[in-house]
C-alpha cells in the first residue's frame, strides 16, 4: 500500500463530517501537491511524498500516545477516532503548494561542480503555520475548538509564538499537547534529518 493509499484509507474510515469529502477531493486534485510535497526543505521528509508520510506517522504516533493507560485514565484524554484522524492527518496542510524545486551548484563525489535540485520555500499565503492549516481545513469542514487549537499549536514550544500562549493552550486543550508530542516523535525519531 502506498502512503497515499494509506492516508486515504485512514481518512475515509475515520473522517465523516460534512465537507470532509470535498477536502479530500481538493487534496487529490491538481490544485494541491499534498501527496507529492516534501515535509521540509532539508530535514525530516525532505523528499517527494514526505508530507503525506509525515502525516501518517503523526497519526500512528498520536493513536499510540492516546492509547496509554496514563493518557486515558490519569489525564482523561478521550477523543473520537475522527478527531484523532483530523488533527494528525491534517495538521500540516499549511505545507501544500509551499515548497518548490530549485537548483544550486554543488560538488559531486568526484569534486566536480554540478547543478543539483533542492527544495526551497515559496509561501504564497503567509498566514503562519498552524493557523494556516486551520484556515484551509475550515474552508471545507467545521472544526471543534479543541481540534483547532491542537492543529494551531502542534509545533509546541519549538514554534515561534509566545511561550505563555503555548503553555496556556496545552493546559486548556490537552489534545494540542498530545499532537505536539506525536509530531515531535514522528519528526525526530521516525523521520530524522539528513544530518
Helix and strand arrangement:
Layout: H1 3-14, H2 20-28, H3 50-67, H4 69-74, H5 81-89, E1 99-107, E2 113-121, H6 130-138, H7 145-152, H8 163-172, H9 174-191
Antiparallel strand pairs: 1-2
Task: Report what the structure shows.
By secondary structure, the chain is mainly α. The chain has nine helices and two strands. Helix 1 runs antiparallel to helix 5 (81-89), helix 3 (50-67) packs across helix 9 (174-191) and helix 7 packs parallel to helix 9 (174-191). The radius of gyration is 17 Å and the shape is globular. The relative contact order is 0.16.
Q: How would you state the average pLDDT, rounded?
A: 94
Low-confidence segments: none
Q: What is the N-to-C succession of helices and strands?
A: HHHHHEEHHHH
Range of strand content: 5-15%
Using only C-alpha atoms, the radius of gyration works out to 17 Å
What general form does the structure show? globular
Number of helices: 9
Q: Order of strands across the biggest sheet?
A: 1-2
Q: What's the quick description here?
A:
With 195 residues, the chain is mostly helical. It contains nine helices and two strands, in the order H-H-H-H-H-E-E-H-H-H-H.
Descriptive labels:
mainly alpha; 2 strands; globular; two-stranded antiparallel sheet; 9 helices; 195 residues
